[in-house]
Amino acid sequence: MPLLSAAVERIQPSQTVAVSSLARRLKAEGRDIVVLSQGEPDFDTPDFVKDAAIAAIRRGETKYTDVDGTPALKKAIQTKFARDNNLYYALDQVTANVGGKQTLFNALVATLDPGDEVVIPAPYWVSYPDIVAFCGATPVIVPCGIEQGFKLTPAQLDAAITDRTKWVILNSPSNPSGAAYTADELRALGEVLLGHPHVFLLTDDIYEHIVYGDFRFATMAEVEPRLFDRTLTMNGASKAYAMTGWRIGFAGGPRPIIQAMAKIQSQSTSNPCSVAQAAATAALTGPQDFLKARARAFEARRDLVVSLLNQADGLRCTTPQGAFYVFPDCSALIGRHTPDGREIRTDEDLATWFLESEGVALVHGGAFGLSPAFRVSYATSEAVLEEACRRIQRACAALV
Ligand code: PLP
Questions:
Q1: In the predicted model, is pLDDT for residue 15 greater than 80?
Q2: Whole-number mean pLDDT of the chain?
Q3: Core vs surface per residue 87-101: b (16+ CB within 10 A) or e
Q4: Most buried in the list 111, 184, 192, 221, measured by CB within 10 Å?
């Protein structure tokens, strides 16, 4: 009998985590490495959030709480959905979890059986297909390339749905492409879903507050209220409030799913950290104006990175509407050779070349299900970004 379960054998360790760990190791060994693989804001958690956590510790809020969130945090989540998204959930329609990753994990484990299918547009966030595979269900990957702005079209969605489809996962703004759906684009996809009443929609809105220019964030349950009862609207504190380490994610959605998610959580992690819940409550209900200022800082970095990458030989980079990633196409570099004669066959070879030749750590497109491309995270200072892009330009120019 094998030691490890079939479920664990079906999944891969997160490749984004792997690249960041390698970069950290090389740095610790003294190599000059620029890290563009990190999926977290470089800003600090706001002071008012930290103060709320310290006050919670002093009040003795250091014990078990209700499994899927304190009443205060659930109320804050309810308030957030009403304020930001015009979504009105009852308190038993929201859940708080140990990071957005657990929110997704709970939702998928609670609903998927072997044979079920989940439609996932590519490029996708690395964990979706693995969590689906862990459940024994089948990820149905729909390629959405640069020519269609990395966005799923209604025709593609319609073609991907079968009798076995349980979920469609939409992530807007997207990790890794930064592409975001307008309200009209969501409505058109919603129209397709209305024709398939057995399909549920999971919207991952974790980059909601990181959008640029006059782009207005929208989410499906808001723009197509007829899908409210079939949509799980997921979000979290990590990206908006620079709280990746605190581990708070949450969702609003249909009661049976929310209850089943709590059941799973009660048999796995129990409640999220009590102190982190107090911090997230403050984040969601406190001043929100700094979010716009931070988005503006990200926007300036986006413009810098898009411009510098488009000056690199062989790269084509679109201008994303949100998140803090760009996903340049590198098809013109495939088939070229390093100065010592090695062929660049894949985007993974290219990422290795960037690391070897110029010490730039980033994640190849294959990890996100769409090649040949790579993801650059620009959640770092403009000085570091400028240096990194110059290095990428040199590494591209050195290929023959
Ligand atoms: N969804 C997307 C698209 C993400 O990029 C991430 C984090 O990288 C998550 C969900 C999960 O975030 P967390 O578990 O930190 O809340």
A1: no
A2: 96
A3: bebeeebbbbbbbbb
A4: 221
